Amino acid sequence: MTANVITGFAVVFGDETVIGGEFRERIARGAFTRTLKERPDVLMLLDHDSGRVLGRTGAGGTLWLQENSAGLYFSLKVDPTTPEGQTALGTVGRQDVRGCSFGFRVRAERWDDGGDRLPLRTITDVDLHELTLTAFPAYPTTTAALRSTAHTNSEAAQRRIAARREAMRVRGML
Predict the structure, then answer these.
(1) Which domain covers residue 90, as residue numbers?
(2) N or C, which terminus of the chain has less Cβ within 10 Å?
(3) Which residues contact 125 (CB under 8 A, 6 or more apart)?
(4) What is the percent of the chain with per-residue pLDDT over 90, rounded to a whole number?
(5) Cβ–Cβ < 8 Å for 70, 161
(6) What is the DSSP string of the chain?
């Protein structure tokens, strides 16, 4: 049933965020390639709460992940008979929750001096442990929506990402 599938981008490659007011961070394209090939059992949680599991890659396809040129895409089959599933479907359906975060361990990174800006950490390889649906994502360009609206949101997000990258390329920043 389409109504209980949540999809989106848990990570958008190249977008920057500020971590704790101390440094800027971005995730490089390909940062998940190795870990996804190793097929870890990645969990989807509500707000990083391990007691509120929504799905997992090792549970017969309740969580499916794909790294593409835009970022880390997910598709989550939500069980509407559980309290967590009802909460996820309700809050994501209303778009009260429309972003994601992720739990990981950095395997490789690159640091650049920020000059007059904060230093920039580019994460190039991670061990991925969990994704989470959250109202306060560290990266505001992440997305989560019910499948019926996710297709439109995904297309709009990909257009915005492409336009931003083109503008950066024109300015010589890429």
Answers:
(1) 2-170
(2) N
(3) 30, 31, 34, 35, 106, 107, 108, 109
(4) 79
(5) yes
(6) -GGGEEEEEEEETT-EEEETTTEEEEE-TTTTHHHHHT----EEEETTEEEEEEEETTTTSSEEEEE-SSEEEEEEE--TTSHHHHHHHHHHHTTSS-EEEEEEEEEEEEEE--TTS--EEEEEEEEEEEEEEESS-SSTT---EEHHHHHHHHHHHHHHHHHHHHHHHHTT--
Count the domains in the chain. 1
Mean pLDDT along residues 52-63: 92
What CATH number does residue 108 fall under? 3.20.16
Structure tokens at 53: 């599991």
Q: Name the β-bridge partners of 16.
A: 26
More confidently predicted of 133 and 162: 133
Contact between residue 54 and residue 78 where contact means Cβ atoms under 8 Å apart: yes
Residue 164 pLDDT level (bands cut at 50, 70, 90)? confident
pTM comes to 0.82
Are 43 and 56 in contact by the 8 Å Cβ rule? The answer is yes
- Nearest-angstrom CA–CA distance, 154 and 25: 23
State the average pLDDT over residues 139-145: 96
